[in-house]
């Protein structure tokens, strides 16, 4: 018996050792100097991202908004079908008066000054009745809407709080394609989330997201809730305000857009000073260069903007711009097409001189242009101006002199907008000083009286179309009668 127990003990001791030896394989790979260098470099990049997050995240806020809206209500389900199908029997019930309901939303923002100014998006706070901001340290404070601009999707809010972290604002003109960036915000309500990527493109326009487009494109993941948060470089500088994604599913697809921070700063300063955006006026009409035109004008490509006409005594005229000049550079930016030029002109601060390069008769010519506020040219105070309370606009009759000053065709018809009330229905639709209203509810309007008459004939809750022009762009929107 003793011998059996001894043999069993020996076997028990050998089995684990044998199993271990058969299941473990020694890794004899040794890191090469190149491997060590790569790991060191990657670790340094990781530390850079960590440093940027630590610098900027405390300045990023969660914005929570409430909006009170009127919605049609029904005292039984059949009434809903009657609205969709007019022939549905009407004997069951009647529509009840509209009821007020509260809608909730959220987005992001970034603190850019020690006195509490926060940059965010118009589509986050522009129509809010109540705004609250949750700071990085957990404090929740009310915010005041200073102003918003639907044409750029920039908005400014302000909070009254102490010990605020402030983000450093960079220069978006220095952004390069391929540059590493970080997007910070609150996607789907998740606080202070960080995503990384590169700058995929700059100067993106023609996306039909907003009226004035000059986007930085990035592949850093941007999701609903990121709107209004900062896009930052590896120096921890804000270079853009995240605003939109390109995806039919409304989720991150590696194509996101940010408003260049230089544009956002210009809008912010105007909103703080004037409660509205002061648009610059140049006084030229441009068009794109069509394929084949480059050879005629002695160019190597169709990049640039062709000047079709120059208004007499305008800033462009005084600077020496001429018909058939090709604008190829505005300040530090090379011009891709006429739309980009219009965007850059519009967002250039009035009074700030800009060096402009044009091609004239095959030769490069440098000029210096100083713009003036378009309101100085368009806004006409005094008799003839009428205020339309329902839309929140001031209007006047069009005259040849006004058309010449704002660069429209001499035979343009409609009603000229000379002032827009902040946060009014017209402001939210995108009407601006210098817009020309052409049609209301299917009726052409050629005078303030015709516009008033068209509005007065619309029921208080009827939905109607309004058509107007902003510069060369024809715009259309649906609005509920006041």
What is the CATH architecture assignment of the largest domain? Answer: Beta Barrel
- What's the rounded overall pLDDT mean? 80
For the secondary structure, the number of strands is 28
Structural class: alpha+beta
Q: What is the strand content?
A: 35-45%
Count of helix runs:
12
Annotated CATH topology of the largest domain: Thrombin, subunit H
Low-confidence stretches: 78-86, 375-385
Q: How many strands, what sense, and barrel or not for the largest sheet? A: 7 strands, antiparallel
- The general outline is globular
Instruction: Specify the CATH homologous superfamily of the largest domain.
Output: Trypsin-like serine proteases
* Rg calculated over all Cα atoms: 30 Å
Q: Determine the N-to-C terminus distance.
A: 105 Å
Tally of structural domains: 4
Q: What's the CATH C level of the largest domain?
A: Mainly Beta
| Portion of residues within helices | 10-25%
Brief descriptors of the model:
28 strands; alpha+beta; 24% helix; 482 residues; Thrombin, subunit H; Pdz3 Domain
Short précis:
This protein has helices at residues 2-23, 33-56, 77-84, 122-125, 261-274, 293-296, 315-319, 338-347, 374-378, 400-406, 425-429, 448-456; strands at residues 60-74, 95-111, 117-121, 130-134, 140-149, 154-159, 168-169, 180-185, 193-204, 215-218, 230-233, 237-245, 256-260, 280-281, 284-288, 305-310, 326-330, 333-334, 353-360, 363-370, 372-373, 386-388, 393-397, 415-420, 436-440, 443-444, 463-470, 473-480. It is an alpha+beta fold.
